[in-house]
Amino acid sequence: MSQTPKNNSLQIPLSKREHKPLQVNPIKHSQPMGAALAYMGVKNCLPLMHGSQGCASYTKVFFTRHYNEPIALYNTSVSDITAVLDGGDYSILMAIENITKKNTTLKPELIGLCTTGLTETKGDDVRNIAAHIEIPYCYVNTPDYEGGMESGWALTAKALIEQHTQETIRLSPNKLLLLPHVSMQPIEVEKVKELCESFGFETFALPDLSTALDGYLSEGQGKLSTGAISIEEIKELGDSATVITIGTSMLIVAKAMLKKNPNITHLHFDHVMGQQNNDNFVATLMKIRQIEPMAHIKRWRGRLQDAMLDTHFLIGSSHFVITGEPDMCVGLCELLQSVGGTVDAVIATTYSAVLEKICVQNLFVGDLEDAMPYFENTDLVISNFHAERLLHSSKRDIALILRGFPNYEELGNQLKNDQLYEGSTQFLFEVANKLREDKHHG
Amino acid sequence: MVNRAKIKELMNESACSHSKDKKKGEGCDMPKPGMAAGGCAFDGAQISLFPYADAVHLVHGPQTCLGASWETRETLSSYKGRDHTSMGFTTGITTNDVIFGGDKRLSDSIDYIVEHYTPEAIFVYSTCVTAMVGDDIDMTCKLSAQKYSIPIVPVHAPGFVGGKNLGSRIAGEAVLEHLIGTKEPEFTTPYDINLIGDYNVTGDMWQYLPLFEKIGIRVLSSLSGDGRVGEIRTAHRAKLNVIVCAKSLITLCRKMEETYGIPWVSVSFYGKRDTSFAILEIVNALGDEALIQKAKEVIAEEEAKLEAKLFPYKKLFAGKKAVLNTGGNKAWSIASGLQDLGIEVVATSIRKSTAEDIEKAREYLGESGVLMKAPASEQAKVIDQFGAHILLAGGRSLYTAIKKKISFIDVNQEKKVSYGGYEGLLNLAQDLKCAFANPVFANVSKKAPWDIQS
């Protein structure tokens, strides 16, 4: 099988600049959507999108279908008139008043505001709202003509720390702050937290989706966010002795933490998939705590190794194409490569420095139109929902594993774990079994 | 560009039931900050036009507008060529375009699309940002249309001008201005109609189109379910406009009546009674005796066939009571379908309904029926009061059903099968049967061991 598709003689380089004037079948998602999701990872937050009503409505439908859960998200419904005459104060304050007046049982502990392309174009100054309301307030500038979902999520975590975490030079040696990238699903955040906790850390995650959108049956859903970290806890994060970023997009958040407390120790991992990265991760935790990991963690490492050997025949003789957010792509790619998989192409949603670390022949920022020629010549595609119909129209049987946003049709997305020794094990088996289905019985 | 006079005119539509009780010039409501939950004008415009599978739909704006909306609606198409409705095209503007203007990018994008996809037409949607920075979309479209000799239609419905409904009206205006009357049909018949406002979601139209064929009604064009741009261009030669469950396109129909003398009727194809009624409305409006006679025969035949198929279900559903909590015309159209199946609808929501919808809901539910203004807080009480057996609502209400230990159907979720026409009623019946029989609701309502007090 050839590695470069014949009908795509012009290779697209990895670049911050676009290679065509438009996107056809896009995979990129906007910054305000990442911001809204980040606010959902805070407890009793009222996520408020400052833009026309459509921005929030689309975002709501998007996440409702991905998680199959009601989504708490409000908007300031900027109109053509307020767009010109209002600097933001009126529509934001009116929105907060209208929402809280209409539902008096609603007791938000934080108003989480993100801007959109519209309000950034007119240049609303959203900083001063806090002076007019009693509820704690956080704002983040997220025009949707810049960056993407990954950056919107990271910018929001950064804003929460910059605007709310108190400065200190004190350290609580046991306290650990985890900063997970946007593509980590609720259960994945929980699993990584649990690992840290098993080493005796008092662990916080920001944003923390482990109790939001995690597919949990309860009453009165979708009015306020149900994330696992409260604004009070965010205020007190400054004394976290250890700050761990997972995903390059989150480095800016760690930087903001260091400004709050220069004494903290920041540790970075591009991802926590596959044996090597998890060995590094566990070794780091062992070094800080000077203890051995719990027995079940050691056991999972052995299972991962066994899975790597069990799956290497199938994966090692197969070709892959991956699309998605950069921080997700790098983990998936390295895990497959660690068992001999040939990744023909990685097509990322936006540019990120971490992409430079990926060793594949075809690596660029693009859309599914760009990806299609590579899909046609591979064995298994890892992409989002939109790839499904495209692959149906293909003449060959090409296996597909859905990862990343959106996954509109499959159920239980929030409980799929690809992280750590355990998740990596399950992921390798899923890939191998998918290959078996399509390669030998297709 | 966005035209305030036009928006004002559309908001004050004289034929719209919103405007009936209002002072002159007041018209439909503008969205209030914090209170608007539905889609924006762009959303409405895109929904109205997107089913044209032979056209490319290019969204000129930043990432959210298309990125979160493409491939979200099950609008089916029988188009044999490349189906553009399952694709997404956006200029995805960046900071540079906001500062220097996005006209060049738009024009390059149109070039790219024509070169790679050769569509029959291109719809170009403006969005908040590109409207705000003042891109001259009209001129770009005009020049490109001249260059390529295909219709390139600018649709000026940026999100901030209002809600979904207004956007849909604006889409109608764009079609009227740029497409209708620009081509002659190959032939006409005295029974030519335009279908307006059915988007063929889950193939709704295909449930009733075979009946039209049997009767002899010909669909000249559709706006826009399973539609073709080439056909809508000939719409001015139809004898009748048929609006299907879409009040937003009344303006278009009124204007077509004024300009081309085409009368219009408004119908729904949900449930047996509505479907039969709709067919009779259409043939009566066309006014041909033979056609009316044929329609009556077809209706009698189809109803008899349906009744036979429904018999086992009706036996199963006898004595069952339902509470319905959904918005807009679904508040009465699904109620009508349920009643056709022999289920008593004890309450329905009128939270998001127009005056006309409320009237209809009252008519279907009768005097004893409860019209819920605040269904979120009322529905639990109503379930207790009437001893209802099933709740049909959006996902947020699932917990209410579990707590009350009754069956549940999510009516707001994207459906996979159509509930439209006679056959659709069978789909609804099947879904209901499954919901009633499923023990999951009772099982899930059981208490956890740690919540049981011994």
Which terms would index this structure?
A: 442 residues, alpha/beta, Rossmann fold, 3 domains, 4-stranded parallel sheet, 41% helix, disordered N terminus, B: 454 residues, 47% helix
Radius of gyration of chain B: 23 Å
* N- to C-terminal distance of chain B: 71 Å
Query: DSSP strand (E) fraction of chain A?
Result: 15-25%
Sequence stretches where pLDDT stays below 50 over 5 or more residues of chain B: none
Taking all Cα atoms into account, the compactness measure Rg of chain A is 22 Å
> How many domains, in number, for the residues of chain A?
3
Overall pLDDT metric of chain A: 94
> What assembly state would you assign to the polypeptide chains in this entry?
heterodimer
Q: Segments of chain A where pLDDT lies below 50 for 5+ residues?
A: 1-9
What's the domain count of chain B? 3
Helix content bin of chain B: 40-55%
Decide which structural class fits the backbone of chain B. Answer: alpha/beta
Spatial order of strands in the largest sheet of chain A: 12-11-10-13-14
CATH class category name of the largest domain in chain B? Alpha Beta
Spatially, the strands of the biggest sheet of chain B line up as 11-10-9-12-13
Silhouette of chain B: globular
Q: In short, what is this structure?
A:
The complex is a heterodimer of chains A (442) and B (454). Chain A is α/β, with parallel strands linked by helices and 442 residues long.
